[in-house]
Amino acid sequence: MTLRPDTVDAFERLVERLPVALLDPAGETRYVSPAAAAVAGVSPAVPLDDVGRLVAPADLPALADAFASLVDGDGTEACVTVRPAGRSDGAAVAAALFDFTADPAVGGVVVLFTDETPAAQVRRLVRAATDPNEGVAAADSPRDAVDRIVAAASDVPWLELGCYLRDGASAPLGPVGPSADDDAEPVVRAADRTGERHVVGPDAAALNALPDRPYAGGIAVPMGDHGVLVAGVRDRDDVTPDLLTGLSLVATTGSLALDGLAAGRTLRRSRERNRRCRAEADRLAAATTTERRVERRVLAADSAPAIRQAVCTELAAAEPVALAWFGTVSPGGSELDPAAVAGDGDAYPSAVTFELSDESGPPAARALTERSVVAERDLAAGSAPADWRRAALDTGLRSALAVPIGGDEGTHGVLAVYGRAVGALDGPIRALVEHLGRVVAYALTAVELRALALGNTTVELELSVPAPNSLLAELAAATDATVSFENAAPNRSGYTRLFVTVDAPGDRVVAAATDIDSVAEARHLTDRDDGALVEVIAEDETVPGTLASLGAVVTDAETTGEGVRATVTVARSVDVREFVDDVREHYPETVLLARRVRETPVEADRRFRRRIESQLTDRQYEALQAAHYGGYFESPRRQTGSDIAATLDITQPTFANHVREAQRKLLAALFRSG
Fold first, then answer.
1. Is 61 helix (H, G, I), strand (E, B) or coil?
2. In which element (H, E) is residue 132 found?
3. pTM confidence score
4. Calpha distance 147→630 (Å, rounded)
């Protein structure tokens, strides 16, 4: 039968390299490709016009039956295995028939011939295993590589593949697969040791890496340093040079893929080690920076409360510390009282009782009782569900570290820090806290010794602080009025609470203050003879706040055209030059105008204030100060507890609790003094 030219042109462009034939609906041959003739083992001098020349005569009925089933509408596909007409090597050809009789572009049945000889199957195996997208090279693990090698031979019914791999350079070989449960056999070990292929007969021991099926022979092919590829064949004659060459190619490809996976694992481990080293170096650098900063602040402080608050504030600002507090022994000696607190969860120390007699109590109490460092890597891992553990976990704290401050003869208290993650206080941060414990002990001892030697003397300094944009100067300029300083209290959160008197209407002062960028909030507290008393909360650094944070008592401050002129008192033991240098770190052009040593009751008052401050927490002091200046204690009250609590961003019950506790401690100190 002769094909139309247009059909031949269109069809041959698509299938000239495929082993296909095209039959019309009547069964006549319309086209046979050269590749199909090659599969059948014939070399046509002219185009074949009879599909029967490709198939052995004995197998033509099977092909005809498959064709008839499609034409009769029994399906759209059929497959039959036939023998090639021109080959004598016992080859088999799979003929797949596809119905296109309803398609006018084809108008017939397409027959696709697939060579099923062992050599052709081995070539397909190699192509599947070495395919860059789907083969062994695309594996993401050694087990995945083995699975891809085994899958590559899934279409070869007479061949089974398996692998023996080692997990490391010196590890023993072990079979990989669902039925693998024993060590490598002698033939496998021999191939691994010599680096050469080994072939065994049916009398050899079964290869554990292969499925549990009988086979007539086995082959072991080395896979570099990673293991051995094994194959089992159904017939001894299947072990051909083509098979050995193909398995060598598969083994080499598998070895290269495993090399890549091993290199990737090594690279990932190296990167992870580098990441951990960098993180450790960063933690060490951060701890060193924190250490220097805390040491400077602690050693510059001239009172016990300033020292305690300084170490807590600086530690709470450092990663990974969430909360830091300093506890001192109560007057009765039975428990710890929080003397300074900083960080998140600052209500926790006040909510827990730190009894020194409780052997299973909080780390801070145990540290002071045992005179040793107490660490809790995971507060949730404790054996006893103690109240202090629940309170810490409810606050979000997961780890704790407590360091006693001072020796056995006269301890100063305990420094406790908390983290929000398990083990957060391991490593450099623990060494830092322990070191700062020794520094704080030295500083507190020095303060006590200075207090014994000072008597009633004090040092008064008059400073000119060039700060033309200071808050006091801006407020004076904005109100065109005189601003008199009353008090300043730096807050651990970074802002300063100032109390000033301005000889101008209170509402105008508040409006002018809130227009200043550095002011977070301003409130008119009361009117006095010399002007309106106003509370101002400054987010940025202020001159009175800075001086107070450095341990000075600011007794007077007034604005000038160039900045602020301030009078402060410091203990006589304070090195004035160092103090002025500390001020110059914040305001470089500061000038010391006068220095006077006075024998006045100021130092006695100073010591009394220190006693009070040492008993009060930061929150209690802040609440008491706000209540005093807000007219809470006057009759009638100028402000309610709710009003003042709102300015402190706390609830009214919390404010009332802070004020009552502060009053109790104040009265206790007063009557003990009497």
1. helix
2. none
3. 0.38
4. 79
